């Protein structure tokens, strides 16, 4: 008798038990072992179909739960998401990241390449898919799909579903040149804040002071909305950055841990920002809860805040300004003041510095030169009382 190839089966045998037809077949799994399968049906045809379904299922997921060349990329994606859910439960990944990845898989990856067998997944096929997403959906979506596919395929390599990660060598994705973030100039800062101060919607949505706070710190919007009064040390003039506000599907808003160790930082506040916060605390009579709270004293949704900013900027010369523009502005101001890339990375909570700096140098020291650089562009210098502060 010839030896079966991997995944192949022999002749199907039939018998009868208790009035039902039994189909039995031997097959060789992808581990090389010879295994037997049995299935029953009302007829030989039904029993044959049942045993074939069982064989295909057994070949799709190996005996030890690993994936095989006949598993689909969609099978792998579902398994990868289960693994990622475990990381979220352990606190090592963000729930919002899980939601983002799941959405990309359901909307783009599975419809585009989910039906491919793992044995068919190649660099060429991944490259064509990502280039089509780039063309049809844009750079941001293509980049997200590449991130998801790279993580998924790397995980499948570790599960013996793939021999190499095919995403590693795809064509680099290139963003449009005009997508480069733009910073506000010192004059534009003053003009933009004047618009916020005069706009009824901006004042009702508490945007003027929020914009100033981000311009004083360079925080991400979610980080700024996550700052509580207990994080602000008025005596030392510093703020502790410890959380970000995210929305989790089915659970609503929540304060989440930051993405990386370098995101946890202590920032020295410019004097004008500290004065603004002191006046705000007195005006609101607030000593607990978020500094920039919603009407009920809870966290604000960054999507709603972003929508409010868009509403205010529409029809103005600042229709390009986003909350993230403030971070770019802070980085540009610090760079122009002579601050090192290292200090700027610490201020913004970036982790992309050299390994030597990460491992051998401290990243938590508060450097007065940073606050001094931000002190120099007090947006309210020379202006009258604003934002409810006493003259």
Summarize the entry for a quick read.
This protein has 391 residues and is mainly alpha-helical.
Globular, elongated, flat, extended or rod-shaped: what is the shape?
Answer: elongated
- Give the low-confidence spans: 353-365, 384-391
Strand order of the largest sheet: 1-2-3
> How large is the radius of gyration?
29 Å
Helical region count?
A: 15
Q: By CATH's scheme, which homologous superfamily of the largest domain applies?
A: Intergrase catalytic core
Report the CATH architecture of the largest domain: Orthogonal Bundle
- CATH hierarchy, class of the largest domain: Mainly Alpha
- Class computed from helices, strands and strand pairing: mainly alpha
Along the chain, the helix and strand elements come as EEEHHHHHHHHHEEEEEHHHHHH
Strand residues, percent: 5-15%
Total number of distinct structural domains: 3
According to CATH, the fold-level topology of the largest domain is hpI Integrase, Chain A
Instruction: Quote the distance from N terminus to C terminus.
Output: 99 Å
**Helical proportion, percent range:** 40-55%
Biggest β-sheet: count, sense, barrel?
3 strands, antiparallel
Report mean pLDDT, rounded to a whole number: 83
Number of strands: 8
Written description of the protein model:
- The protein has about 400 residues and is mainly alpha-helical.
- The chain folds into three domains: about 15-60, no CATH class; about 75-180, DNA polymerase, domain 1, CATH 1.10.150.130; about 185-375, hpI Integrase, Chain A.
- It is built from 15 helices and eight strands.
- The chain has helices at about 45-60, 75-90, 95-115, 125-135, 140-160, 185-200, 200-205, 205-215, 220-225, 270-285, 300-315, 325-335, 340-350, 355-360, 370-375; strands spanning about 15, 20-30, 35-40, 230-235, 240, 245-250, 250-255, 265-270.
- Helix 2 (about 75-90) runs antiparallel to helix 3 (about 95-115), helix 4 packs antiparallel against helix 5 (about 140-160) and helix 8 (about 205-215) packs parallel to helix 12 (about 325-335).
- The longest helix is centred in the middle third of the chain and has 20 residues, at about 140-160.
- The N and C termini lie far apart (about 100 Å).
- Mean pLDDT is about 85; it is low at about 355-365 and about 385-390.
């Amino acid at each position: 008798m010839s030896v079966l190839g991997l995944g192949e089966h022999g002749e199907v045998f039939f018998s009868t038990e208790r009035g039902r037809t039994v189909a039995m077949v031997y097959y060789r799994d992808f581990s090389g072992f010879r295994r037997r399968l049995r299935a029953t049906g009302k007829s030989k045809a039904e029993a044959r179909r049942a045993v074939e379904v069982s064989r295909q299922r057994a070949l799709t997921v190996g005996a030890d739960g690993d994936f095989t060349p006949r598993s689909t990329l969609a099978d792998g994606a579902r398994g990868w998401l289960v693994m990622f859910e475990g990381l979220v439960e352990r606190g090592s990944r963000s729930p919002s990241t899980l939601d983002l990845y799941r959405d990309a898989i359901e909307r783009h990856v599975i419809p585009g390449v989910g039906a491919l067998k793992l044995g068919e997944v190649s660099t060429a096929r991944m490259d064509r898919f990502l280039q089509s997403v780039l063309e049809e959906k844009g750079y941001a979506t293509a980049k997200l799909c590449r991130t998801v596919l790279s993580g998924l395929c790397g995980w499948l390599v570790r599960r013996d579903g793939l021999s190499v990660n095919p995403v590693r060598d795809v064509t680099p994705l290139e963003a449009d040149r005009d997508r480069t973030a733009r910073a506000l100039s010192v004059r534009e800062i003053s003009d933009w804040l004047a618009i916020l101060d005069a706009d009824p919607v901006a004042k009702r949505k508490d945007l003027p002071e929020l914009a100033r706070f981000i311009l004083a710190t360079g925080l991400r919007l979610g980080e700024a909305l996550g700052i509580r009064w207990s994080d602000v040390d008025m005596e030392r003039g510093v703020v502790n950055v410890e959380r970000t506000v995210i929305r989790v599907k089915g659970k609503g808003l929540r304060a989440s841990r930051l993405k990386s160790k370098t995101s946890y930082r202590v920032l020295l506040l410019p004097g004008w920002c500290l004065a603004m916060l002191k006046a705000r605390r007195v005006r609101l009579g607030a000593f607990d809860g978020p500094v920039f709270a919603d009407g009920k004293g809870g966290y604000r949704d960054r999507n709603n805040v972003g929508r409010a900013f868009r509403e205010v900027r529409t029809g103005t010369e600042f229709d390009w300004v986003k909350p993230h523009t403030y971070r770019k502005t802070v980085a540009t101001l610090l760079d122009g003041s002579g601050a090192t890339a290292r200090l700027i990375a610490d201020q913004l909570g970036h982790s992309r510095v050299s390994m030597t700096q990460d491992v051998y140098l401290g990243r938590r020291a508060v450097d007065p030169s940073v606050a001094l650089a931000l002190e120099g562009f007090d947006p309210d210098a020379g202006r009258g009382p604003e934002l409810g502060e006493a003259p």
